[in-house]
C-alpha cells in the first residue's frame, strides 16, 4: 500500500502512515510537507485538518505490515546469518542471555550457541521493524506480547526503562541487556523517531534520537534513565527522555 501523495510504500519510519480525520492515510513526511505548504487538507477528498498533533499513526496498517514481515524473519540466525537448527551438548554461554548452559542450539561454523529458553523467546516474539529502535548497547529488540510466559519470575510485571513505571503485558525487550519498553513508550518512539528533527531543544536546535546515548538525567524532568536512549540536542547536547520529548512536540 502506498502514500497517495508521494506514491512511496508505507513503512515504519519516514513513510509511516498517519490517519487523517476523514479516514484516509498519508505518510508522515507528506503530512509535514502539506502543513509546511499550508495545504492542510486531504489530497483525496480535500477535507481539511488543523495540525499533525491531532493525527495518529495508522496502527491497524502497521500491524498488517508487521505480520507480513514476521514470517520472513522468524528463523533464528547466528551472527553471520546461518540458520541455527542443531541442538548440541556443549558447555558455554548463550549468546543472547549470556548464561552458562550445557545444551545449546548451535551454529557449528561460527561457534554461536543459543539456549533453549532464548530460542523459545525468539520464536515467540516479533522483530521490531523500526530501525532506530535498539537497546542502549545497540542490540536489536523484539516485541514480546506476553512477558509472563517468558519471564515467570517477574509475574507478568516489569519496569519500563522508557518511563520508569511498572507495566505488564507486551514489552519491547532486549533479553541480553534486560531492557524493556512498555507498549506506550514503544508507540511514542515509533511516532517520535521519524520526526525528531522537527522537535527543538530549549536552545532552538533540533533533536535526534540516539539509542546508544544513555539518557541519564533528563534535562526537563530530571529523572534518571539508566537503560534508555535519549533524544539528543545536536548542538548543546542536552538529553531528553521519551515522555518529555513527546510533551515538547505537543506543546510547540
Radius of gyration equals 20 Å
Q: How does the overall form come out from the CA principal axes? A: globular
The low-confidence parts are 69-73
The number of helical runs is 6
Description:
Keywords: Metal-binding, Zinc, Zinc-finger. This protein is α+β, with helices and mostly antiparallel strands. The protein has six helices and 17 strands. It has helices spanning 28-36, 59-73, 116-123, 147-150, 183-192, 242-251; strands spanning 17-19, 25-27, 56-57, 86-93, 100-107, 112-114, 126-127, 142-144, 157-159, 166-168, 171-174, 179-182, 207-210, 216-217, 224-225, 230-233, 239-240.
Layout of SSEs?
Layout: E1 17-19, E2 25-27, H1 28-36, E3 56-57, H2 59-73, E4 86-93, E5 100-107, E6 112-114, H3 116-123, E7 126-127, E8 142-144, H4 147-150, E9 157-159, E10 166-168, E11 171-174, E12 179-182, H5 183-192, E13 207-210, E14 216-217, E15 224-225, E16 230-233, E17 239-240, H6 242-251
Antiparallel strand pairs: 1-2, 1-3, 4-5, 5-6, 7-8, 8-11, 9-10, 11-12, 13-16, 14-15, 16-17
Quick tags:
alpha+beta; Herpes Virus-1; 4-stranded antiparallel sheet; 3-stranded antiparallel sheet; 24% strand; globular; zinc; ubiquitin protein ligase activity; metal-binding
Could you write a compact summary of the structure shown?
This is RING-type domain-containing protein. The protein has six helices and 17 strands.
Amino acid at each position: 500500500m502506498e502514500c497517495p501523495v508521494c506514491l512511496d510504500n508505507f513503512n515504519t519510519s519516514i513513510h509511516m502512515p498517519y490517519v487523517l480525520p476523514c479516514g484516509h492515510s498519508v505518510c508522515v513526511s507528506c503530512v509535514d510537507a502539506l502543513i509546511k505548504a499550508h495545504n492542510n487538507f486531504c489530497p483525496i477528498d480535500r477535507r481539511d485538518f488543523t495540525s499533525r498533533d491531532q493525527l495518529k499513526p495508522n496502527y491497524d496498517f502497521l500491524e498488517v505490515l508487521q505480520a507480513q514481515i514476521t514470517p520472513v524473519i522468524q528463523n533464528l540466525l547466528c551472527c553471520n546469518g546461518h540458520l541455527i537448527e542443531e541442538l548440541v551438548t556443549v558447555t558455554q554461554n548463550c549468546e543472547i542471555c549470556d548464561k552458562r548452559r550445557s545444551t545449546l542450539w548451535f551454529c557449528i561454523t561460527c561457534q554461536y550457541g543459543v539456549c533453549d529458553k532464548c530460542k523459545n523467546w525468539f520464536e515467540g516474539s516479533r522483530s521490531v521493524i523500526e530501525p532506530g529502535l535498539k537497546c542502549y548497547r545497540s542490540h536489536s529488540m523484539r516485541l514480546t506480547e506476553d512477558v509472563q510466559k517468558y519471564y515467570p519470575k517477574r509475574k507478568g510485571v516489569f519496569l519500563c526503562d522508557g518511563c520508569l513505571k511498572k507495566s505488564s503485558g507486551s514489552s519491547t525487550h532486549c533479553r541480553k541487556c534486560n531492557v524493556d519498553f512498555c507498549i506506550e513508550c514503544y508507540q511514542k518512539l515509533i511516532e517520535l523517531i521519524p520526526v525528531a528533527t522537527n522537535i527543538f531543544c530549549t536552545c532552538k536546535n533540533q533533536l535526534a534520537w540516539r539509542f546508544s546515548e544513555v539518557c541519564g538525567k533528563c534535562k526537563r524532568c530530571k529523572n534518571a534513565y539508566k537503560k534508555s536512549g535519549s533524544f539528543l540536542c545536536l548542538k548543546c547536547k542536552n538529553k531528553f527522555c521519551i515522555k518529555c520529548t513527546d510533551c515538547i512536540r505537543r506543546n510547540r
